[in-house]
Design goal:
single chain; 234 residues; alpha+beta; Glutaredoxin; Glutathione S-transferase Yfyf (Class Pi), Chain A, domain 2; 2 domains; 9 helices; Glutathione S-transferase N-terminal domain-containing protein
C-alpha cells in the first residue's frame, strides 16, 4: 500500500497518474496547502521541504520498514523501480528517461510555476516578470515540441515517467499564455495522454479531494502559500 500525501497540483497529479497506470493500491491523504496543512509537524516528518506530494511505501519491494519520500521526481523514479514499469531497463533507455525527467524538474515545472504566480496569483502585476516567465515557458514548450517531432513519447516509443512528469505542467497552458496550436507535436502528445484511462482517473480525484479547485485564491491562502520563511519549518 502506498500512502499518498496529495493535493490537486501538477506535482500531485504526476503521482496519481503513475499509481493509476501501474495499478498500485494507494490511499490518498489530502494535504490542503491553502489551509497550511503542509506545515504540520507530522507532515514535515515525511516531507521536510513542506511540499506535496510525498509518499510512504508501507510495503517496500525488499521488505523492511516503511519508506517515505518527498519530491515528485524522486517519487516517480522510486515507484518505477519498485514496479519495473515506465522506465527502461537498458542503460541508454534509462538515461533518456532520466534526462527528460530532470529537465521537467529543473526547467518546465519551476518556470511554468513562476509563470502561474506572476500571471495569475501576484497582486502586483510586474510586466517584466510576466514577460520573462511567459517567454521562458514558450521556449520550453518549443523544446518539448521539437523533441516529440519524431517520437510518440518524450523518451521514445514507450510511455514513461518522463511523460507523466511533464504532462501536468502543460494542462494549464492557457493560463500560462500558451497556445497548443503553435506546438503541433506537443499537442498530439498532450491529447494522447489526456485520453488515457489512468489520466482520466487521476484527474477525477480532484472532484472528491478538492471540489472547489479553480476558484479564485483568497488573500489568506496567498499569505499561507507565498512569502514563507524558515520560521514555518522550525
Amino acid at each position: 500500500m502506498i500512502d499518498l500525501y496529495y493535493w490537486t497540483t501538477p506535482n500531485g497529479h504526476k503521482i496519481t497518474m503513475f499509481l493509476e497506470e501501474a495499478g498500485l493500491p494507494y490511499r490518498v491523504i489530502p494535504i490542503d496547502i491553502g489551509k497550511g496543512e503542509q506545515f504540520k509537524p507530522d507532515f514535515l516528518g515525511i516531507s521536510p521541504n513542506n511540499r506535496i506530494p510525498a509518499i510512504v511505501d508501507t510495503k517496500p519491494a525488499k521488505g523492511g520498514k516503511p519508506i517515505s519520500l518527498f519530491e515528485s521526481g524522486a517519487i516517480l523514479l522510486y515507484l518505477a523501480e519498485k514496479t519495473g514499469k515506465f522506465i527502461p531497463t537498458d542503460l541508454a533507455g534509462r538515461a533518456e528517461v532520466l534526462q527528460w525527467l530532470f529537465w521537467q524538474m529543473g526547467g518546465l515545472g519551476p518556470m511554468a510555476g513562476q509563470n502561474h504566480h506572476f500571471r495569475n496569483y501576484s497582486n502586483e502585476k510586474i510586466t517584466y516578470a510576466i514577460e520573462r516567465y511567459t517567454k521562458e515557458t514558450n521556449r520550453l514548450y518549443g523544446v518539448l515540441n521539437k523533441r516529440l517531432a519524431d517520437r510518440p513519447f518524450v523518451a521514445g516509443d514507450d510511455y514513461s515517467i518522463a511523460d507523466m512528469a511533464s504532462y501536468p505542467w502543460t494542462v494549464s497552458h492557457e493560463r500560462q499564455g500558451q497556445d497548443l496550436n503553435d506546438f503541433p507535436h506537443l499537442k498530439r502528445w498532450f491529447e494522447a495522454i489526456r485520453a488515457r484511462p489512468a489520466t482520466i482517473a487521476a484527474y477525477d480525484l480532484v472532484k472528491t479531494v478538492n471540489p472547489t479547485a479553480g476558484k479564485p485564491m483568497t488573500e489568506e491562502e496567498k499569505k499561507i502559500l507565498f512569502g514563507q520563511t524558515a520560521a514555518v519549518v522550525r
